[in-house]
Amino acid sequence: MTEEEKQSKERKPKRRGKGEGSIYYDKKNDRYVGSFYTQEGKRKYVYGKTEKVAREKLRATQRAEEQGLLVAGPKQTLRQFLEHWLENVHKPRIRVSTYVYYHSMVHKHILPELGHLQLRNLKPEHVEAFYARMEKEGLSAGTVNLMHGVLHKALEQAVRRGMIPRNVCDLVSPPRLATREAQPLTTDQAHKLLEVVRGHQLEAALTLALVTGIRRGELLGLRWQDIDFEKKSLQIRRTLSYLTGHGFKESEPKTAASRRKIILPKFVLDVLKRYRAQQKEIRLKVGPAWQDHDLVFCNGHGGFLRPDRLVEMFHTLLKDAGLPHMRFHDLRHSAATLLLSMGVAAKVVQEILGHSRIGVTLDTYSHVLPGMQQDAMEKWDEWLRDDGDAEEESE
Known about the structure:
Elements: H1 3-10, E1 22-26, E2 31-37, E3 43-48, H2 51-66, H3 78-90, H4 96-114, H5 124-136, H6 141-160, H7 187-196, H8 203-212, H9 216-220, E4 227-228, E5 233-235, E6 239-243, E7 247-251, E8 261-263, H10 266-286, H11 307-321, H12 330-341, H13 346-353, H14 358-364, H15 369-394
Antiparallel strand pairs: 1-2, 2-3, 4-5, 5-8, 6-7
């Protein structure tokens, strides 16, 4: 042992500030000891063969304490971990609407059932029994799958930080999802919808949704400045949602592909021009009470239109028109199906819908492809017939 090491071991620990921690040499066990008080007032110890190792461990442990990862040490419950993870780790990375949904799911379902268990004691059997109870209580397979995704993501963080040896969700299979068939409008039904909606207050909104496949949130977040009548296009720049307890929230489109430019046909531009003129008349009648947000689709005073109100009016119109009941989102499926049936290339449909990958478009609308293949094969017959006729004429 060098003289410097001897002096280091014999040196008394320096007086440090509150929460800063200290390092000293333990002669009896020939090791360095680092210690500090946690936020709960408990003394936490770390050990190292050298002063450097002990100091590094002390700093790492203090950082973990600051991040809330030492709550009750190894006895940390799933509730303590999940609440910290959701508020401090995950919340900054997700949309407000996603956070609100996750918060409700965690506090309403996961924590009441599993929150009391220690994080390290959580077993696959606990999670399996939890999923079974949720299904028995009437929750859909889709909702249980979403809970599985949230729990898996959180536990993955715990694994990466060395808090648990494995992610128990890897050993559990969530309930199988039932494939939900989209209900796109047929060509005849689409024609009928456009006829019925003519002159209705939803004419512009439903025409735009049916022709472009624009999402409901994108539709409600649309502003007049986003529509270029000269270039015959609109730009998707934002999406609008309504969250209970939080009100209306505008946010960026979910993906880069969702920020897109859509070329509009003339008849849609004409519908929008008529609608704009009607909106100006209403604005004059309302006067100073008008809220100028430049919204294309708004309530009677220019303010944000609630998504559920739009859906309610849509369903009433379908019923009055004798059209089958469908989700508002099925207008998006209708747009894609009709475009593909018209022979529009799948890549173009992908860009119009704002899908991030063409695979999403092809997988979602694979039911349209068999008919397109039939058309393609018939084109071969037509081509060969034309070629044969040309040879006969030349003879």
